[in-house]
Each structure stands twice: as C-alpha cells, then as structure tokens.
Amino acid sequence: MDLLKKRIQSDGQVLNDSLLKVDSFLNQQIDPQLMLKMGEEFAKRFSGESITKILTIESSGIAVSVMAGLILNVPVIFARKKKSVISNEALYCTKVYSFTKRESNSIIVPKNFLEKDDKVLIIDDFLANGEAATGLATIVKQANASVIGIGIVIEKSFQPGAQKLQQAGYRVESLARIASFSNGQVNFL
Ligand code: 5GP
C-alpha cells in the first residue's frame, strides 16, 4: 500500500537492524485518515470471505481494526494483556512472547465474545516472529471458530513470522512488507 510505505519512509525511524519506530502515526499518535484507508484496504482484501469478527491485540492493533470492522460491518474484539479487575467471566487465555518487551505475557479474551461459527480476521500492527498472531490464532482455535486470515500493517519479511504463519496454513495479507533496514533506511519488498 503506497500511502503507508510513503508514510513509513517519511516518518518512521529505524532504531537498529530489526526495529522500526512509527510512534507518530501508528503506535502512540494515531493518524485516523491513514487508519481508515488501511481499514478499507483490509476490508477489500478480505471481502467475500464472510468475516464475522475481527480479533486484534491491545493497544496498537485496535485503531486500524476498528476501521476495518466499520467497513466490514462486524464487531472488533481485542485481546487484553492484563486481566481487568471488572472481568468476572470465563476467559480464553494463551501465552505470547513479546518481541519488543522481551518477556512472555498472557493474552486474554472473554469467552462470550467468540462463538464456534465465527469466521475471524486477525489484525495486528507489526509482524516479526509471529508470536502475537499465533497467540491470537490459538484463542480462535480454543473457541472452535475459524481463522480466515491475518492482516498485518507492517510485515518485517526478513524475520520468520510471515513464513511461519503461511506454513501453518494461514493467509497473511500485509500492507507494507519490509525486506531490510540499511543505514537507517527502509527497503521494501
Ligand atoms: P511478533 O509477535 O510477530 O514477534 O511481533 C509482533 C508484535 O511485536 C507486534 O504486536 C508489535 O507490537 C511488536 N513489534 C514487533 N516488531 C516491531 C517493530 O519493529 N516496531 C514496533 N513498534 N513494534 C514491533
């Protein structure tokens, strides 16, 4: 998606050979117009798949997921990384190793939001080793629902996540695919 690639080129900061900072439009300050365009793009790529729900993970997957949910006219669920004190319902739960925090955390989704007939589109902001997306897919499986596909805003294709998910049989649609970082520059596939 050219608009996103241009934004990454102009506003992204390459922190080292594997980390990209995009706090000015995706991870801290959010550009709603760009989120809407990306939501439209996900909705287009998965149109005809009869998606019934979108599942993402807090916090950076939420904005773009809501836009995709608006266009597809389906609810958006986000997995929490910490149990809320007001949650008293049964939960789906799995462990995810965080690429940026370098620690394992449980991610949780209340059982009442996923049903066995649901056709779920998983969305996340980045794809690195595929841990977050795999964890979300595990939760969909726990509900006996189906993963229709995985939508990613920024795929770092030089890391193993995309290949791992495809080998597991998932359709992965990424809006920007990064081949490498070199001298502070982003090289797209
Ligand atoms: P994975 O689970 O695929 O290993 O990593 C994806 C998760 O780690 C995303 O949810 C995202 O929060 C975080 N992440 C991975 N790589 C990057 C990166 O280069 N920049 C930022 N901002 N987050 C990343």
UniProtKB/TrEMBL annotation:
<dbReference type="InterPro" id="IPR000836">
    <property type="entry name" value="PRTase_dom"/>
</dbReference>
<dbReference type="InterPro" id="IPR010079">
    <property type="entry name" value="Xanthine_PRibTrfase"/>
</dbReference>
<comment type="pathway">
    <text>Purine metabolism; XMP biosynthesis via salvage pathway; XMP from xanthine: step 1/1.</text>
</comment>
<feature type="binding site">
    <location>
        <position position="156"/>
    </location>
    <ligand>
        <name>xanthine</name>
    </ligand>
</feature>
<dbReference type="InterPro" id="IPR050118">
    <property type="entry name" value="Pur/Pyrimidine_PRTase"/>
</dbReference>
<keyword id="KW-0328">Glycosyltransferase</keyword>
<feature type="binding site">
    <location>
        <position position="27"/>
    </location>
    <ligand>
        <name>xanthine</name>
    </ligand>
</feature>
<protein>
    <recommendedName>
        <fullName>Xanthine phosphoribosyltransferase</fullName>
        <ecNumber>2.4.2.22</ecNumber>
    </recommendedName>
</protein>
<keyword id="KW-0963">Cytoplasm</keyword>
<dbReference type="GO" id="GO:0005737">
    <property type="term" value="C:cytoplasm"/>
</dbReference>
<keyword id="KW-0808">Transferase</keyword>
<comment type="function">
    <text>Converts the preformed base xanthine, a product of nucleic acid breakdown, to xanthosine 5'-monophosphate (XMP), so it can be reused for RNA or DNA synthesis.</text>
</comment>
<dbReference type="GO" id="GO:0046110">
    <property type="term" value="P:xanthine metabolic process"/>
</dbReference>
<keyword id="KW-0660">Purine salvage</keyword>
<dbReference type="GO" id="GO:0000310">
    <property type="term" value="F:xanthine phosphoribosyltransferase activity"/>
</dbReference>
<feature type="binding site">
    <location>
        <position position="20"/>
    </location>
    <ligand>
        <name>xanthine</name>
    </ligand>
</feature>
<comment type="subunit">
    <text>Homodimer.</text>
</comment>
<dbReference type="GO" id="GO:0032265">
    <property type="term" value="P:XMP salvage"/>
</dbReference>
<dbReference type="GO" id="GO:0006166">
    <property type="term" value="P:purine ribonucleoside salvage"/>
</dbReference>
<feature type="binding site">
    <location>
        <begin position="128"/>
        <end position="132"/>
    </location>
    <ligand>
        <name>5-phospho-alpha-D-ribose 1-diphosphate</name>
    </ligand>
</feature>
<comment type="similarity">
    <text>Belongs to the purine/pyrimidine phosphoribosyltransferase family. Xpt subfamily.</text>
</comment>
<dbReference type="InterPro" id="IPR029057">
    <property type="entry name" value="PRTase-like"/>
</dbReference>
